[in-house]
TrEMBL record, chain A:
The species this protein was found in: Zosterops lateralis melanops
Residue segments, region Disordered: 410-434
InterPro entries associated with the record: FN3_dom, FN3_sf, GHBP, Growth/epo_recpt_lig-bind, Ig-like_fold, Long_hematopoietin_rcpt_CS
GO BP terms in the entry: endocytosis
Name recorded for this polypeptide: Growth hormone receptor
Automatic annotation (TrEMBL), chain B:
Gene3D superfamilies, alphabetized: 1.20.1250.10
GO terms, molecular function: hormone activity
Sequence similarity: Belongs to the somatotropin/prolactin family.
Name of this chain's protein: Prolactin
GO cellular component: extracellular space
Top-rank taxon, per record: Eukaryota
Subcellular locations according to the entry: Secreted
Amino acid sequence: MDLRHLLFTLALICANDSLSASDDILQRPQISKCRSPEMETFSCFWTAGNFYNLTVPRILQLLYKKSNEEDWKECPDYITSGQNSCYFNASYTSVWTPYCVQLASKKEVYDKKCFSVDEIVLPDPPVHLNWTLLNTSQTGIHGDIQVRWDPPPTADVRKGWITLEYELQYKEVNETKWNELKPRLSTMAPLYSLKTARDYEIRIRSRQRTSEKFGEFSEILYVSFSQIGIGCDHCTEEVEFPWFLVVVFGVCGLAVTVISIMLSKQPRLKMLIFPPVPVPKIKGIDPDLLKKGKLDEVNSILACHDSYKAQLYCDDLWVEFIELDIEDPEEKNRASDTDRLLSEDDLKSHSCLGTKDDDSGRASCCEPDIPETDFSASDTCDATSDSDQFKKATEKEEDLLCLERQDNDESLPDLASTDPQHQHRNTESENSSVWAPFEDSVESPHLSVHTQISNQNSLTSTDFYAQVSDITPAGRVVLSPGQKSKLGRAQREGCTEQNFTMDNTYFCEADVKKCIAVTSQEENEPRVQEQGYNEDGYFTTESLTTTVANLGAPTAAAPSSEMPVADYTSIHIVQSPQGLVLNATALPVPDKEFNVSCGYVSTDQLNKIMP
Amino acid sequence: VGNLGLNSKGQKSLLLVALLVSHMLLTKEGVTSLPICPKGSVSCQLSLEELFDRAVKLSHYIHFLSSEIFNEFDERYAQGRGFIAKAVNSCHTASLTTPEDKEQAQQIHHEDLLNLILGVLRSWNDPLIHLASEVQRIKEAPETILWKAVEIEEQNKRLLEGMEKIVGRVHSGVVENDIYTPWDGLPSLQLADEDSRLFAFYNLLHCLRRDSHKIDNYLKVLKCRLIHDNNC
């Protein structure tokens, strides 16, 4: 119901509108506009409206009045400007004087307007439009033309009474939208890049310079290139930008550039554009190993590194998690790997010594499938050589250590039980403090053992690794007995203060120096002599030098008291399955260079030092 | 204090300055003997053509600004107030008899016309200063109106200077400075009633537009007559 009501009311309103519209068909007369074309005369135009039909014709009057006058005057000229117009010639026109005009009959005033002549200036259109060809493009498809015209004849531009500006519009014949040029003061305008195959239309209009409104448009000027014989009949379509070609050539060029760069031998350019992808690099590991997939060797090396790192003096954060015990210097010297090796077979079954040590970094390196590479791995850390040989070597080492073990049978079994727990207590001064409280609790029950251990250490080698000084023809490995002489060192006070661990595979030279400084003088000679012992086909560079030089004197390779103990060296050459050439580690060590690597001398560093 | 403090060099410079000043004062044509060149001009003597060119450009610019400011004011304040209907348009310069059509402009002597132009410009000096200051007191006056008012006042001063130069060049005899109409419309700009005040502004801006158009036209006529010999 509501909707119907709404519709009904709407219908009523519409009807009302239509009715009222029909009433308004009778329109009042109005002054449509007043215009001056040149600021010298002006005309006013009006619409008669419907009244005109109904009432007596020509009853409308236009009255005007200047502002300084009182009376309304009638229009002087109803004819010149056409019907329903009033023309004021120059004598009636005062430019800056306000006028008022009104459209009236005798009865009433229909419309009134007030203005001044300078406000109603609308110039006539320009005349005499023509165009000339400026030039054409090389292909003949486009051309430039110059359009000229004359100002409207009524406007007195010559004397400067009125200043006009012109706007030109042009378009192709079959287009609908006109292109506009900016208004200009001059009576000529160039048009560039017109298509010679098409025809154009041009029109111009003008306005007084400070006005906003333009006058009427001029007559249309037709431009046809064919008329002057330039038209390009066979130029059908304009050449569009060859996007397809651009893309294809761009891709090809890019591909060629890339390939050439890749193949180029200029390393710099290559580096710039194709920077090398950083490959994982672990010190001591040959990336080829990784590539070739020699898993065993890689694992051993990594395991070595992991466990090794646990023993370093380096400031590795993860090392914090390793159980350390540095507080008691004697503890460091408690059990060496050799002892453990000698002591039991249980340990052998462990892939790492003492996997019970949960927090130690060593646990991470435990590879159950590579049970016996741990020890050997540590020796091979710095070298990319055969781990197998060292496996054999350690086995032999173990056998050899058995010999030593007999001396220590009493205390060793005790040690064996305690060793696993202590084995990882590698001394790292920086990290030990973290674990000191923990270890203290562990240590207490083993105090008795520690003394034994220290005693043991005094007797046995305190290192994890012993330097292989010789390999007998029978296949046995002779360890450098010089390690034993370290025992005395361990007991000496000068060394116990340090974080110096006999357990370590490698010594940090800085620490070593301090201890060696104390002991080296005494031990050099016997060690050198023993290292000179040569049975089987391997030489140390050291031993070579010692044999060459005076045996009695400290070798050139071990010139100073700062020489680190050459318990082991990195492998220089693998001569044969049974022969190794080790690098001399007993070298004068400049202080600064070796603190970095914390422990072992790499061949690179050696090369730096070696003269 | 006892020490005069002037060394020989200082004495010499003082003497030089004194000589120069006395020379200037003695020769009444101080201005011509030491010509003051307009800023940026290469030579001190601009040609009359260049002076007229500059003057026409300035006058066109002033008229352009006046038209714009009037249109903006009309749009903003005059709509719905019926100002047009009320406008009597009695400008304060109406007392100056200026040519009202082309015939009169052709017939008047160029010197008289120049003097008239100068007179109109001078008569507008004062109203423009007050316009620039009073228009800022209109409630929420748009920024465009404000800066245009200031700009018109500045340019008018420059045009006045330029015209005085031209007059100095063209005139053979003594320059007459008595063409001038005082302006007393300041109180109307400060009326309390807002409608009346705005109507006063409307009138003033309307008159400004008209007079600036007059001056622009006269200058162009003069330029075409004097420089281009009626063949612009």
